[in-house]
Amino acid sequence: MKLSNATLGQLPTNVLRPHYDRSALTPGIVHIGLGNFHRAHQAWYLHRLMQAGEAMDWAIVGAGVRPYDAAMRERLRAQDCLTTLIELDPSGISVEVTGAMIDYLPIVEGNAPLIRKMAEPAIRIVSMTVTEGGYYRDGKTGGFDATHEDIRHDAANPDRPRTVFGAIIAALRLRRDAGLPSFTALCCDNLQGNGAILRQCVVELARLSDPDLAGWIDTNTAFPNSMVDCIVPATTPEVIERARQLGIDDAAPVTHENFRQWVIEDDFCAGRPAFEKAGATLTDDVHSYESMKLRILNGGHQLLANVGELLSVPTIADCMADPQIRAFFRKVEEEEIVPFVAPVPSMTPAAYLDLIDRRFTNPQIRDTTRRVAFDGSSRHPGFLFQSLRDALAAGQSVRGLALAEALWARMCAGEREDGSTIEPNDPNWDDLRRAALAARTAPAVWLAQPGIYGTLGAEPPFATAFADALARLWRDGCRETIARFLAD
């Protein structure tokens, strides 16, 4: 059955579907970067509220700022912006069609449709998932990178911005000039202190062209921190075929695990849906939750993905089914990550690691090592380096984390151990590959990438352990190197 508003009533009886009147929905949220994660996560929370008769004036309008977003827009608009969610669990699957999204804006140079929509009074939240590497951060200082080509363009052309942040500024200028209040800007990316980082991007970019507007934004706009969690693999032809076998012709179905978590700082300047009624946690202490998740889950993903790529292990679940890779994951987590993570209400770090272990092991979730390894130049600093700094400061061993970095360097050389090619998988792939190949004989070259390692590469315990691990990887291979680490 081709998915659309007209066919909702004809879907198989075991498929949950909206029982609210979608024609009565009105927009309250613009979401930028409308990929699988958003549709399985934030949009699902809103859908659940709508199923309960609430949040009918908080429907989502999708948006993007890059040309490749146009393909997703075409697919979703052709099916009235409905999404099929297929929840995968070893005990079985469940299927639900969600309908919280009602439109997807055109993707055009200069982002005029997006700016106009965000300037409308009805829009009270602008949220985004634009990946961890999309926030123009200086690799040396962690601050805002005002020298980037896109940022310089938006500062010089504030009415025709390229970036999400430039578009937000242009919309807020229209709202201010019209005497309208600001909206809440809600980051849903995996960054520690993501609201503060988003505030910095928007305010600092605005200051380059209009200091008065920057001050107005800083005073009037809320940027709550949040932590999001749900494992959502990429959509493949196999996923589309699986949806068809379930009776739904959906051009962009989404598979996901049966776990969701959303922790949000309760700081909204223009109202919000009652997210807590759908299971979200509203709190003043997002930091503890996000630190636990980013270090243990996202950091754990990086422990697995690089070695998985090198050994041609296709998915995270397959890595966990490999006794040696799983043992490497557990040892590094237990000895070098978990000891530096604080507990949160009702969850210790050790219990959280056990939860993540079970989630990663789910064989129904075909989350590829390639997807998880993507953009290591953002994900390694964001997910592993704080654990590395804490372990160094405490005088503890960093051999496991150093081996994780050596595995990444070895992967970026572009060839698996079976001789097959690893295709480019990072925005900075060419630079990474050059450094990785040079590091084969001079390991310090890899750590001398200041935009990634900053001063970490000069820490003797880390540099020595890294050099030893990388030399062993090239000489003895992954299996022997990991076996030696596990034996010590």
Structure description:
Keywords: Oxidoreductase. Residues 285-474 form the Mannitol dehydrogenase C-terminal domain. It holds the Pfam family Mannitol_dh_C. InterPro entries: 6-PGluconate_DH-like_C_sf, 6PGD_dom2, Mannitol_DH, Mannitol_DH/Oxidoreductase, Mannitol_DH_C, Mannitol_DH_N, NAD(P)-bd_dom_sf. The chain has 488 residues and is of the alpha/beta class. The protein has 21 helices and eleven strands. The strands form three sheets. It has a five-stranded parallel sheet with strand order 5-2-1-6-7, with helices on both faces. The chain has a three-stranded mixed sheet with strand order 4-3-9. The chain starts with 26 loop residues before the first strand and ends with a helix.
Integer count of domains: 2
Q: Any idea what the CATH superfamily of the largest domain is called? A: NAD(P)-binding Rossmann-like Domain
Q: Roughly what fraction of the amino acids lie in strands?
A: 5-15%
Separation of termini? 57 Å
- Secondary structure class reads alpha/beta
Task: Assign the CATH architecture of the largest domain.
Answer: 3-Layer(aba) Sandwich
Q: Determine the number of helices (DSSP H or I, runs of at least 4 residues).
A: 21
Outline the biggest β-sheet.
Answer: 5 strands, parallel
Model regions low in confidence, pLDDT < 50 over at least 5 residues: none
Oligomer: single chain
Strands of the biggest beta sheet: in what spatial order?
5-2-1-6-7
Radius of gyration: 23 Å
Average pLDDT, all residues: 96
- What is the highest CATH level, the class of the largest domain? Alpha Beta
* Structural shape: globular
- CATH fold label of the largest domain: Rossmann fold
Pfam families: Mannitol_dh, Mannitol_dh_C
Domain Mannitol dehydrogenase C-terminal: 285-474
Domain Mannitol dehydrogenase N-terminal: 28-277
Protein name: Mannitol dehydrogenase family protein
